[in-house]
Design a protein that fits this description.
By secondary structure, the protein is mainly α. Helix content is 72%, strand content 0%. The protein has 15 helices and no strands.
């Protein structure tokens, strides 16, 4: 069958374009492997996958290692920063009037897909070594510094969990939680189901578990903005699309009750600072290897 396939190509048969495409792909893949991209991609996976596993399981220890003592502070800060109202009180009526709540709910859940897509492109397809190394350094530092260290220092649960972990305080987010229970065409938003799952894991006494609860800083927002900074260096249109999505994640983190707005603002600041730091690290590493390439600002 293979012999007949290539014979048709030589005779100008209908498979000539397909066989040419196969040959082009074969040559490109050979260059890809010989150039070391595949080896580098798997090396990156060896670093990233254990890191994400460690973060998820380490996060499950947070509520047991320290108390969620910062929630009242961040809740009060949000009200001061947003002119005497909680930010969801400004946003939710607007989104509800435009019937955008299901869209925001779905977009927020798609964050994992966006993160894995960005990582996949970086590891397996991005041929710019300096840019690739900058993103990988930034991604790793983002999970270690704001994702782990800051999460333990500023331990907080988030608006949707406020009443569960602070039963002795008046819950300023009780109305938000009640609204989320019917906000998706009379049904709970999908992210509320995930919230219930996380609460069960945090309180079931199993240690370590698959994941846990942590609000400050928002890792969803930080990683989304980190991806946007990276996408901007890859392609102008991809960069604009990624920035729109990052803003959507910030909005979703607030209206869906996962984070205080200040969690997201700090997450953006962390992502920007780490992105710049990673640029310096990548440039220094390139200089040391004698293959310096500008990583941009």
């Amino acid at each position: 069958l293979v012999k007949a396939f290539f014979k048709t190509e030589r005779q100008g048969g209908p498979f000539r374009y397909l066989t040419a495409a196969v040959k082009t792909f074969e040559a490109s893949f050979d260059d890809y492997v010989r150039g070391g991209m595949l080896a580098n991609a798997f090396a990156g996976l060896v670093v990233i996958l254990p890191l994400l596993t460690f973060f998820s399981m380490g996060k499950s220890l947070l509520g047991h290692a320290v108390a969620y003592r910062w929630d009242p502070v961040f809740a009060a800060s949000d009200r001061v920063l947003h002119f005497g109202r909680y930010p969801h009180e400004w946003l939710n009526p607007f989104l509800e009037s435009l019937h955008l709540v299901p869209f925001v709910d779905d977009a927020y859940l798609a964050w994992f897909g966006a993160m894995f897509a960005a990582n996949g492109f970086c590891l397996f397809l991005d041929g710019d070594k300096a840019r690739r190394m900058r993103y990988l350094w930034a991604f790793v530092l983002c999970w270690i510094l704001p994702g782990t260290v800051a999460a333990f220092v500023f331990a907080s649960s988030g608006p949707v969990f406020f009443g569960m972990f602070h039963p002795d305080l008046a819950d300023p987010y009780a109305s938000l939680t009640a609204w989320l229970a019917t906000a998706r065409d009379g049904q709970p938003v999908d992210t509320m189901k995930v919230a219930g799952f996380l609460h069960d894991m945090t309180t079931d006494g199993v240690l370590p578990d698959l994941n846990g609860i942590s609000a400050m800083p928002s890792q969803h927002v930080a990683v989304a903005w980190l991806i946007a900074f990276y996408a901007r260096r890859c392609n102008l249109y991809a960069g604009w699309l990624a920035f729109v999505y990052a803003v959507l994640i910030l909005i979703g983190s607030i209206v869906l009750g996962w984070h205080y707005a200040i969690d997201g603002y700090v997450g953006i600041l962390c992502a920007w600072t780490i992105w710049r730091l990673a640029g310096r690290i990548a440039a220094y590493a390139s200089d040391e290897m004698g293959t310096a390439q500008p990583a941009g600002a």
